[in-house]
Amino acid sequence: MDSVITLRGAVSVLGRFPALAGVDLDVDRSEVLLVSGPNGAGKSTLLRLCAGLANLAQGEATILGFPLPRRRREVRRRVGYLGHANGLYPELTVAENVRFWSRSVGAPTGDVAAALDRVEVASRLHDLAVAHLSAGQRRRAALACLVVRRPEIWLLDEPHTGLDAAARDLLDALVREAVAGGATALVASHEHERSSSLATREVQLVGGVVTWSRKPNSDERPNEHPDERPNTHPVDTGQADGAPIAVGGGAPHVP
Amino acid sequence: MFRDALLVAGKDLRIEVRSKVVLNQIGPFSLVVLLLFAFALDPDRGFLQEATPGLFWIAVLLSALVVVQRSYALESVDAGRDALRLSGLDPAGVFLGKAGASFVVLMALEVGLIIGVRLMYGASLRGWPLLLVTTLTATVGLVAAGTIYGALAAGLRVRETLLPLLFLPVVAPVMIGGTRAFGAALDGSSAEGWRWCGLLGTFAVAYVALGMLLFESLLEDS
Amino acid sequence: MTTTVQPAATAPRATRSAAPTSTGSRFTRVLGVVALAMLCLQLALALVISPPDVLQGDAVRLFYLHVPMAITGGYLGVGLLAIGSIGYLWKRTAFWDLLAASAAELALLFTGLTLVTGSLWGRPVWGTYWEWDPRLTLTAVLFLLLIGYRAMRSATLDPHLRARRSAVIGLLAAADVPLIRLSVDWWRGLHQTATINPLDTALDGLMLFTFFFSMVTFAVIFVWLLVHRFRLAWLDEQVAAHSLEDAIAERRAEAEAAGSPGPTGSAGATGSAGASAASGPGSAVATAPAAGTTHDGGAS
Predict the structure, then answer these.
(1) Would you say residue A255 lies in a domain?
(2) Which of A109, B5, B102, B177 has the greatest number of C-beta atoms within 10 Å?
(3) Contact state of B87 with A85 under an 8 Å Cβ cutoff
(4) Are C260 and A190 within 8 A, CB to CB?
(5) Is the link from the previous residue into B164 a cis peptide, with omega within 30 of 0?
(6) How many domains, chain A?
(7) Which chains touch B (3+ CB pairs under 8 A)?
């Protein structure tokens, strides 16, 4: 298994506060890693570091084979990060926002509609300014911006917050689909039960360091599909060729 | 790089067209500045006509300041500054795109200001080729410098107060050059004016080059 | 695959403890004494020994202070600011950032004094405190640019952000100086108002010697101040680095205090699962944080 994220003693400083105080972490391709921990443990900073957004004050970080901070831009083009904010321009329409993200990595224009269909945003909303959408719809639009870029690593910070049951299921399906297509996902979440059904491994962050890492056992699973593994989950767009859009990171647009 | 620049500029201009902030707020603001000069100087004694080049460029400088602030304000809504970083676009392209969109907006404002000084101050517009070239080169310099300094101040808590302090002294050559070239054009002494255009051109080239070179370090981490 | 708490792999800042703990050294003490002696001699030469000027009279004595300060502040100070800024953007080390910051601060001091002495000199010679002389105008704009640089340095506490952004500002300000110089020269060239200019004055003999001696004196004073200012900044940086190490240690202690159930131990794993299952919504009233996992269950 090849490692897509390698952190060695990674320290990330916000102002003068070490949000990450020496994180050692390896994440292999096709893992769904649940990052848990109390508030202020450094979960968000860990995700931002992997997205090439947070600084690396000490230690080493290699994302998809690109060392940070030098190859920051290559990392940013290949990961999909969804933080607390949606990163949408409120004056632009939903389709225009998705098009901006898709064009920034040179994706074909046809992908925009496909991505919006995939996240089940009704087509009457496509040409509506984001400012007019409800919070949940904005979140879906933000997900479409992620989907359209076919990221190799999905970095989701509290992704279930503010979503209704249908959207949560959709999000989980998107992640499973992406992972089946060769992507990797990191999910920071407080909603332990929800996210651990998705995860193949869980790490806990306390005080800016990883305190433990484990693979969930079947008896720990709260749901009724103990043996459900993401790569056996039925997906409709397993192969990128025939399908209108593949969520998976197997065929990134970036050379 | 140019593809990325077009993408960013297109996005910025589209937002401007939708939000109409330039049309409804910044344009009227620059006309208010023209009005204030008339209050400050006696409009009956020809002071306004005499001082037109300087007053015009002060109005342009203040408008440029507001345009730059607006250009970065629309990035800060909903963590857009992260969006610009995450997009992975070429930093030089992002710089050219943001500067290009500001150029279009500032040029539009300058057309309004020219009409304003023609009508309100009774300024004659002789030597228009010089006026046109001066306006174009000076505007390129202003938006290039403004885009760099806007990015420098962006994300700081003191950005609104820091930006004018950083930006206005730096564009002193543009203020002097633009005013002298306009003065020369209105006097009909063009030869003098073209020399100033050369200075404005040098400023523009220097700041566009520096912006393309340095913007990467401003898009690193916040 | 398994992750454990380990000490930070590299701690380059900690190795700096061999650095000096005060800003003085034998070299700076010698330099300081030399600078002081030179200043005494310079003042004696400028204010007492050298003859008054034919045109300006005794006012010429002020310009033995004014011109050297303008040149050391403007050329040496801004030159070092540019070098430090470029060095930082290239090498990304604190040395260059602190060099630029120290040089900028001294350049600000020297250009400020240049403006003051220029005004004082202008009063008897020009009849006004302020004349739109090209060099004086350039100095005034430079003074404002340096104030902008300082303002940026005080605008953020994040050392990396501050270093990066102020390096860009330092570089841009230095690049702007020739353009401002050219524009104010042309601008004032159109109107021949500046009657007497300090550098136009014909100097000979003792006056010329006094002038050059003053130049060297102020250069030595500048270097002496720069060394001290730089070392002070360096020590500041070291304190910050140490407190960062302390903060990291404190943060890691936070993790150990929370306790780790062990990476693979099934007891720990089930325990944490039980804890998260037990704390339903609303029941997450924190008792003692014996296990960090208890925080997980309560969705905030």
Answers:
(1) no
(2) B177
(3) no
(4) no
(5) no
(6) 1
(7) A, C
